[in-house]
Design brief:
This protein has two helices and no strands. It is mainly α and 65 residues long.
């Protein structure tokens, strides 16, 4: 299956190369993680909090908390 095109590798080098290639071929493919959703696409961001009443309400409206 393998063909040496240039050079003269010894038996140990060929064995190491064969082991690496066999390991890569038999390795399970990595699981794809689901794409993380952007916070901008979160539907909860469209829900507005109720407005506060009373003293300092204008200040609280500018600072979400």
């Amino acid at each position: 299956m393998l063909k040496v095109v240039k050079g003269t590798p010894d038996d140990y080098q060929l064995a190491a190369l064969t082991a690496v290639i066999a390991g890569l071929a038999s390795a399970a493919p990595a699981e794809d993680k689901p794409a993380r959703r952007s916070e901008w696409a979160n539907p909860a961001r469209r829900v507005r909090r109720p407005l506060q009443h009373g003293p300092g309400a204008w200040r609280a409206s500018g600072f979400p908390g």
